[in-house]
């Protein structure tokens, strides 16, 4: 196991730390800037391109990043992962979300079964079920078609699937493949479930209950909420619910559900959009064919992430540049800025994916690390953000690296020409302009109107946000986060940091509190 | 003008910097912790309470913060502001958003009119208009009632009003005062307008076009989008649109609108939720009486912010503690975590409010400052965030101060009892538990399960999220941000950082580019 070393023990990291910082405003000026845009560009899966011209790197720094990737043996670690090594050391588990969309390496057997076959089987079961629902072969008790699917889940059972649904909803409408509208209930706040239930026709709604363990407090509470609503409407709840859970969970064999689809312990919640967790709601909403395209896109990106030529591997390069920004340049945050309204909740998903995976202070062996790990992730779609928090990004006292995403074409295709250009062209023009404004700045004698520049960004550009390109985009970030975890030598696949709050909340509800906990409970009259 | 001094010239800041840091885990343990919860609590307007027991402060630090408030003359500066001084030095403008909800001091005259009277007049004009719409006296051309109101605006004309609408939508339904459903179009992405238009019945929709200058690119583009949709539906657009703008804007006297309501240059976009910008859409959605309650709540919070006893002034104290965290403890971010699904977009509004106001590097006189200013703000509702990014907040390598918000009662009132408690109790128990978990941590021999604690938070607690308490909550944060700007000696009321991107985007669309800007334009085939 000697390959797992802390980042600060690597000679290549030491060498990286000694490189000369790039003056971004300078290198991005004039024709040199144009040359960088051409040169610092990597093709990704599904026609996407990762362009990092406006990052604070040069050939010297890139050379050191390549050496870091090699010394940290990133490609080899990825190989170990998809071949079924116990990469999640904290929970002693395999990490198999890649197998939900393809077989990257050897057959992986666990619990006595071929795991790729297991995931494919669940996809097929979901597809059959969804097709029957769409065909009116599975209906409510009155024999009427279900029109709405409501996901009940939280965290990874909510953010990813929700972001993916929103990303494709308009595309599906435009391409006549929106089979059912999807809604989501997540928060234990009773107003969340109540508001969603008020907004749907429960008699024609199918509820997908998602909990790996079958014990998630919020999700079970919201299930009761939904069952009450169904009962109050005179409906048989078991005709309106399916479960997505692990085979060993109490939900797996219950008569309370029309069907149960399975995931397992080898897929973390935040990596589960391509498993049954995303598969059920997305196949019901868009049809299994669309979900399959989404998986194909993710599989192509996974294959691209295996490329051992670091400078041709967008996920690895993106990860390495992030490490350089975090550990050499000292930047804490990264803003994710999709110029696509359809990606309105994609930053919230990446926020979980990244911060829950790499927000750790101990290495894979439980020893404290002495360097910074995962960044704070936030973001909103552009151009909206331009009229909001971009002020600080341009002129604030701290530098926040930026991750732009943009597409040449819109999804719906309806557009207007104003002042000689379409809205879509304006959208693209704005993201192009922002990259240069952040990088180069503009000096002004009035210091209040002065832009220092030097604010790094990268952009992922695609033709259009489709199921396949969305899958590729999602997998890119999953793999980026994984590679960063490898560099930092941390376990990106557990989340012990969520436990303490759960324990204390139970104590509050049981009135077993003292000190500050009791005092806060009293403030809420619990 | 000698009262405007940089923070690092103040003796009290120097003294603050020399205080001994508080060991939060230690002081929050045992009965001392309970005593802090009781002691470090300030009543706010509308029954809200600001509790800062879990912040890294003690009496010594608080004493220094009080001295800083006095030396920086925060109360006096607020007085100057609401009495009509030119506080926005960059744009040479008065800052009058407080006058939209009350008269805090002297009559303020500008442009030859009493500004409080002007804002009240606009509220009354909006109220009359809204009442007529609700009564069916103003209808579409077919004489049918409008059922939906659609706001077209971006930035401050979108985030604040949208967050306020979402915050009160369920409350209004529950209290039978939801008059019209509201929708929002903001992004220049054509899919935003197209999707919203696909989701509404345009024949019964009233569109509120909001642009102070009447020249905002996104908003004018989306107006055209909407006019096309109305025309395609065989409707007369001018029967379906109202404008909210300044009296001098090209929209003010146009025949294209049923009516125009006015704001002015003395109210920044991010402070405009209580002006006609929020007033039109919220009065149409909920009725003018509800909007009036919201204004009253804000007015009460403004009055509370005048309190010269710093330790009894929640907005000032919140601001000062934030300065201590930013400039002495060196924390970059603040997470806003409302335990209320209704506040789902409140963090996005605060993100604009705070980051656009205080993300500045020069002081009021255009001179660079040598200390950190406004923090990065992000957040999502709890308990959702607990299953997402809280991992990093608990166990990441950097400390992120937290701002919790919670309410004892839900808005809708529908609830279920599971395992002996309601969902609402579970929600409250979770926020109480999180505060203590972050502050105190919990040691574990397994370092992976170890929580260091020492992660500071405050909480604002209320009985219920109502129009009045929402108004008070909004004004609290507006005033907090204002006081922080005063301490940092920056101009919190301009936003020059948004200009460069606009200029460059125009150049891209005009094909007047070279270098990197041309290269990025080419990537998008512009």
Structure explained in plain terms:
2 copies of one chain form a homodimer. Chain A is an alpha/beta fold and 526 residues long. Chain A folds into 3 domains: 244 residues, 3-Layer(aba) Sandwich (Rossmann fold), CATH 3.40.50; 198 residues, 3-Layer(aba) Sandwich (Rossmann fold), CATH 3.40.50.10490; 30 residues, no CATH class. Chain A is 44% helix and 12% strand. In chain A, the strands form 4 sheets. A 6-stranded mixed beta sheet of chain A has the order 1-2-15-12-10-11, with helices on both faces. The first copy, chain A, has a 5-stranded parallel beta sheet with strand order 6-5-7-8-9, with helices on both faces. Chain A has a two-stranded antiparallel ribbon with strand order 3-4. In chain A, helix 1 packs antiparallel against helix 4 and helix 8 runs parallel beside helix 9. Chain A is globular, with a radius of gyration of 24 Å. The relative contact order of chain A is 0.15. The model of chain A has no long low-confidence stretch (mean pLDDT 97).
What keywords describe this structure?
homodimer, Rossmann fold, 5-stranded parallel sheet, 526 residues, alpha/beta, 6-stranded mixed sheet, 15 strands
Major pleated sheet of chain A:
6 strands, mixed
CATH fold name of the largest domain in chain A, please? Rossmann fold
Instruction: Please count the beta strands of chain A (DSSP E, at least 2 residues each).
Output: 15
Write the CATH homologous superfamily of the largest domain in chain A: Glucose-6-phosphate isomerase like protein, domain 1
Q: Spans of chain A with pLDDT under 50 lasting ≥5 residues?
A: none
> What is the residue-averaged pLDDT of chain A?
97
Largest interface: A-B, 159 and 159 residues
Q: Radius of gyration of chain A in whole Å, from Cα?
A: 24 Å
Provide the number of structural domains of chain A: 3
- Helix count of chain A, per DSSP? 18
Class by helix and strand content of chain A?
A: alpha/beta
* Second rung of CATH, namely the architecture of the largest domain in chain A: 3-Layer(aba) Sandwich
Q: What strand order characterises the main sheet of chain A?
A: 1-2-15-12-10-11
Proportion of residues in β-strands of chain A = 5-15%
Gap between N and C termini of chain A: 49 Å
The 3D shape of chain A can be described as: globular
The helical percent of chain A reads: 40-55%
């Amino acid at each position: 196991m000697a390959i797992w070393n802390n980042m600060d023990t690597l000679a290549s990291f030491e060498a990286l730390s000694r490189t000369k910082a790039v003056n971004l405003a300078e290198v991005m000026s004039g024709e040199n800037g144009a040359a960088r845009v051409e040169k610092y560009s990597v093709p990704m899966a599904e026609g996407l391109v990762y362009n990092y011209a406006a990052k604070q790197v040069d050939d010297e720094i890139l050379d050191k990043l390549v050496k870091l990737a090699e010394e940290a043996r990133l490609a080899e670690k990825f190989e170990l992962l998809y071949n079924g090594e116990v990469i999640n050391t904290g929970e002693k588990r395999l990490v198999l979300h890649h197998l939900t969309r393809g077989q990257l390496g050897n057959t992986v057997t666990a619990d006595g079964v071929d795991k790729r076959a297991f995931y494919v089987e669940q996809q097929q079961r979901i597809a059959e079920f969804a097709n029957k629902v769409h065909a009116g072969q599975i209906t409510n008790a009155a024999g009427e078609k279900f029109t709405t699917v409501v996901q009940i889940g939280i965290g990874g059972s909510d953010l990813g699937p929700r972001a993916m649904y929103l990303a494709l909803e308009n595309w599906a409408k435009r391409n006549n493949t929106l089979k059912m509208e999807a809604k989501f209930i997540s928060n234990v706040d009773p107003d969340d479930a109540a508001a969603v239930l008020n907004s749907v026709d429960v008699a024609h709604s199918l509820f997908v209950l998602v909990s790996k363990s079958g014990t998630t407090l919020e999700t079970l509470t919201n299930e009761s909420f939904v069952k009450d609503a169904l009962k109050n409407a005179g409906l048989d709840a078991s005709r309106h619910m399916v479960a997505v859970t692990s085979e060993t969970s109490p939900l797996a064999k219950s008569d309370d559900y029309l069907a149960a689809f399975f995931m397992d312990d080898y897929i973390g919640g935040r990596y589960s959009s391509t498993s049954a967790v995303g598969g059920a709601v997305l196949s019901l909403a868009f049809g299994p064919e669309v979900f399959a395209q989404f998986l194909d896109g993710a599989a192509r990106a996974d294959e691209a992430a295996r490329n051992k030529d670091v400078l041709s591997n967008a996920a690895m390069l993106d990860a390495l540049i992030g490490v350089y920004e975090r550990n050499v340049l000292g930047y804490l945050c990264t803003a994710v800025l999709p110029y696509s309204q359809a990606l309105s909740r994609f930053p919230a998903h990446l926020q979980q994916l990244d911060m829950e995976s790499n927000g750790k202070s101990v290495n894979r062996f439980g020893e404290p690390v002495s360097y910074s790990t995962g960044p704070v992730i936030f973001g909103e779609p552009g151009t909206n953000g331009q009229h909001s928090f971009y002020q600080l990004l341009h002129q604030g006292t701290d530098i926040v690296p930026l991750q732009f995403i943009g597409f040449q074409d819109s999804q719906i295709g309806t557009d207007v020409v104003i002042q000689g250009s379409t809205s879509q062209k304006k959208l693209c023009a704005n993201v192009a302009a922002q990259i240069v404004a952040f990088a180069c700045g503009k000096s002004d004698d009035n210091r209040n109107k002065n832009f220092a520049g030097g604010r790094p960004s990268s952009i992922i550009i695609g033709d259009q946000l489709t199921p396949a390109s969305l899958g590729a985009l999602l997998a890119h970030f999953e793999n980026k986060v994984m590679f960063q975890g490898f560099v930092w030598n941390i376990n990106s696949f557990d989340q012990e940091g969520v436990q303490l709050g759960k324990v204390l909340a139970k104590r509050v509800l049981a009135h077993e509190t003292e000190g500050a906990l009791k005092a806060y409970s009293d403030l809420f009259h619990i």
